[in-house]
Amino acid sequence: MKSSGRSVDDTPLRVRLASLPHAACVIDAEGRVLASNAKARRTFRRRGEALGDRPITDFIPDIAVRDLIDASSIPGSKRRELHGVWPDGTRFPLGIRFARIRYRQTNALLLTLTDLTRRKLLEANERDSRYGFRQLAQAFPQILWTCHPDGSAEYFGPQWITFTGAALEEQLGRGWFRHVHEEHRAALERDWSAAVAAVQTLKTEFQVRHHEGHYHWFEATLVPVRDREHTLVRWIGIMNDIHEARLNRMALIEERDRFAKLVASAPGAIYSFRLRPDGSAHFPLASVGIKDLVGLTEEELQADAAPNSDRIHADDQARINRSIAESARTLVPWRNEWRVRHPEKGEIWVEAHAVPTREPDGGTLWYGLMIDVTQRKHAEEELRRSQARLQAAVMASGIGTYIWDAVSGRLWWDDVLLKLFDRTREEIEQGGIEGAAQFVQPEDRALVFKSMIPVREGKIDTINVEYRSLRHDGELQWVAATGRVDRDAQGQITRMTGACMDITARKRAEEAQRNSQKIEALGTLAGGIAHDFNNLLLAIAGNARLAMDELNAAHPARRNIEEIETAGARASDLVHRILAFSHQSEPRRAIIELKPTVEEALRLLRATLPAMIKIQSRFSADTPPVNADSTQIHQIIMNLVTNSAHAIGDDGGTIAVEIDRVHAGNGSLDIPGDIAPGVHARIRVADTGCGMDRGTLDRIFDPFFTTKPVGQGTGLGLSVVHGIVRSHEGAITVESEPDRGSMFSVYLPASTRPVDRVETPVTTVERGRGQRVMYVDDEDALVYLLTRTLQRLGYEVVGFNDPGQALQAFQENPAGFDVIVTDVAMPGMSGFHLARALLDVRADIPIVMTSGYVRPQDREAAQKIGVRDLILKPDTLEELGRTLEQLFRQHQSS
Asked: What does the buried/exposed string (b/e) look like for 49-61 if buried means 16 or more CB atoms within 10 Å of the residue's CB?
């Protein structure tokens, strides 16, 4: 062996070998051991045995000394891993580092020996560990991965490779970051670097791109791994695909948000109520609306429900507790309503619905909704009252309902309808619709059948008809019937429902209204006739007065003229009575004597009743005065006498009218017991007519009740009499038997005050002083009469029978007249139009009007336009003289 190594003496070599920290020996070129240290002997387990002068192959069988010598002379690794042999023949891994040296003037090799048994064992263990980790990574459902201490990836489980579609080599280091969503990449790299620098666990979420292009959410956890010396050796991580869970979690959050908004906006309160096994209760859940319902917050109710129970009305608590216990026992859904004593709202009504479930500990949990139903309860109460009123009104109005099944022919009536027609249910069920048609008055059946024709033809679906029906008791009544039909697909009638109502009172009222309108028309006619009569009477009486003034006291014609004046006065009185009878006015009471009013009414009746009816009268001198309206007393006499005349009929008879004095409370049998004790004036009207039976007597004073044929009576006369008597705090009785006549007795309380008397002052009419008067009337006779009369009284008079000519004359000379006297009713231009036209010309001209029929509205209209007075004919002569005198006296004083 060529020497090129270091030269080492024998003694120093041994010393140096002993000082080395590792096992070492020196061999020559033939492989013989020249020297060794104790560590080498221990390595080969040869503690008491020298290694020198023995071939190195005894200790390292597979060593190639020549190869080592050759390798020592060239650059490169000077290491080898071989196997050593222990004395028992066991081979062990041995690491050799070699270098050429010079020993005793020859070339030699210095071998540094390392027992690799432990290291090889550790390496084997690590290989096994890595193999097991990767097998686990392949079987593990999550993605396992490892990183070097600097955080660069060194391994990913196959699931990651499959998901990303990239090779493992591309993922190592930080290459895997390119698969992270760009929105999350920067934050992930920042958090990753911070965790590696701080050597702390990292847990984060981010999106990773699938090899098909879509992204999934992953949750990554990275944990540092240290050895026994706490040195960081690697990072182990796990990644979970949480995409579905993340989406579900976000959906759950959104659903919770929507639920929270729904709960917040829902009326009332969403709640859960728990009944514990020990009987106590609380509200685990209650939305904010609970405070509006019970006056308590959700926090106050979560621990204990007792405060809520205290708010329940005392009358409702037992019922609510029973219902809760029953729902807990049966697990049947719970619903109830009760009153709450709210601290701010007072008493309110709430309603709750809840579904129970049994809990593991034996308790019961309800989930439900609670709402304020105060308005609904009030509405229901009002509806109940309204329905009660409606039912009472229906019962009172006599409205009955019916249902007719056209298919089966069955007819059903309610109790009201049965009572209305005075029939039994058996009659209706047996007779059907044909039997019910027989209840219609024969004269009206054609009308009823005719009303059904358009319904049968399908033109309309409703019927409205009015007809008469005869009850079992013989009473004829009016009925209004309505109905509506249902049809099948072919348009055939299957059913009719409707109602019937007794309209007898309405029909009688309509008849009474027609009679009232006739009376009103008669009054209007009487007024018109009175106007014409008064004009004639004024002309007759006035001219008679003028003729009397021109005759001396012994003239034979004076007697004839006096008779004319007397007849004219009676005619005038008769006209006044007609007007008083037809005039409608408010009652005006006064203390009056009955005799004059009764006599006046009898005089008018004698002129209207048939000659075969005789009227007898008797007036007791001690009849007391009464506080009454004379017009209404007049009406009592007219109605009672007229009723008696109708009872007598065409055969003739007698009507006896008398007034006298009676004293109530003295045991008299003919005085009704419901009048106050004391003195009364009595009016009796007896007749020899047909009389009445008990049934008629019981209803004689009912409105619209009449025994007369249709069109001959309203049934109002005696009802009006009864009302007038009652309004005067009096009473009325009737005694009658069939064929024995009738007697009506009216009792009016006597007055203790004296009779109200109106004294008419007697005045003389002063003469005029040449004042200029324009007189306008369409009757030539009255123009002639009034012109002469006023001229005799000292006035200058210009008369016109045409209001247009009178207006023209006034317009030509407004100052030529001191007063205008005009009639009201004139053709072409009324007195009112003339007065307005005259006042437009001269506003201060005094105007006086005359009329044969003065209505209240006429006086009002005259006052509005500025007329000074309105005088009733035929009182014009005297009244006009006094009116003119007063007008000119006022003008002179002003």
From this structure: eebeebebeebbe
Q: What is the pLDDT of residues 261-316, one digit of tens each?
A: 777 777 788 889 999 999 899 999 888 888 888 888 888 888 888 888 899 999 99
Question: Three-class SS string for 125-153?
Answer: HHHHHHHHHHHHHHHCCCEEEEECCCCCE
The share of the chain scoring above pLDDT 70, in percent, equals 85
Instruction: Count up the domains in the chain and report the number.
Output: 6
- Other CB atoms within a 10 A radius of the CB of residue 863 amount to 12
Which residue pairs, CB below 8 angstroms and at least 24 apart, start in 438-442?
439/469, 439/470, 440/467, 440/468, 440/469, 441/467, 441/468, 441/469, 441/470, 441/476
pLDDT tens per residue, range 627-678: 988 878 888 898 899 888 888 888 889 999 999 999 877 655 456 656 778 8
pLDDT band at 581 (very low <50, low <70, confident <90, very high): low
In a domain, 562, yes or no: no
DSSP 8-state secondary structure symbol assigned to residue 178 = G
Cα 658 from Cα 14, distance rounded (Å): 183
111 and 139 fall within a common domain: no
Distance CA 140, CA 133 (A): 10
Range of the domain at 185: 129-247
What value does the mean pLDDT take over residues 745-763? Answer: 75
Q: ∠ CA(243), CA(244), CA(249), 5° rounding?
A: 100
Residues 136 and 111 in one domain: no
Name, of 79-83, 557-561, 767-771, the range with top average pLDDT: 79-83
Structure tokens at 529: 């006739």
Count Cβ atoms below 10 Å from residue 349 Cβ, excluding itself. Answer: 19
CATH number at residue 719: 3.30.565.10
**In a shared domain, residues 106 and 200:** no
DSSP-derived 3-state class of residue 324: helix
Burial class (CB in 10 A: 0-12, 13-18, 19+), 872: middle
Going from the C-alpha of 534 to that of each of 162, 328, 528, 823, the distances in angstroms are 129, 98, 10, 12
pLDDT digits (tens, 9 = 90+) for 526-541: 666 766 766 777 777 7
Residues 835/849, Cβ–Cβ less than 8 Å: yes
Does 704 lie in the same domain as 668?
yes
Mean pLDDT is lowest, of 132-146, 623-637, 808-822, for 132-146
Is the Cβ–Cβ distance between 96 and 117 less than 8 Å?
no
- State whether 596 and 683 are in the same domain: yes
pLDDT grade for 53, boundaries at 50, 70 and 90: confident
Amino acid at 230: H
Judge whether 704 and 509 are in contact, CB under 8 Å. yes
Q: What is the CATH number of the domain that holds 309?
A: 3.30.450.20
Kindly write down the DSSP assignment for every residue of 284-314, as one continuous string: EEE-TTHHHHHS--HHHHHH-SHHHHHHB-H
DSSP state, 778? Answer: S
Same domain as 348, residue 282: yes
Tokens 């201490």 locate to 149
- What is d(CA 595, CA 599) in angstroms, rounded to the nearest whole number? 6
What contacts 676, CB < 8 A, 6 or more positions away?
664, 729, 749
* Dihedral of alpha carbons 168, 173, 175, 176, sign: positive
Rounded to 5°, the CA angle 318-324-330 comes to: 135
Out of 445, 467, 502, pick the residue that ends a domain. Answer: 502
pLDDT in tens, 346-384: 999 999 999 999 999 999 999 999 998 999 989 888 888
- The domain boundary, picked from 457, 475, 502, lies at 502
Specify if 540 maps to a domain.
no
Q: What is the CATH number of the domain that holds 816?
A: 3.40.50.2300
The one-letter code for the residue type at 823 is D
Same domain, 822 and 793: yes
Residue 288 included in any domain: yes
Assess if residue 509 is contained within a domain. Answer: no
Same domain, residue pair 222 and 154: yes
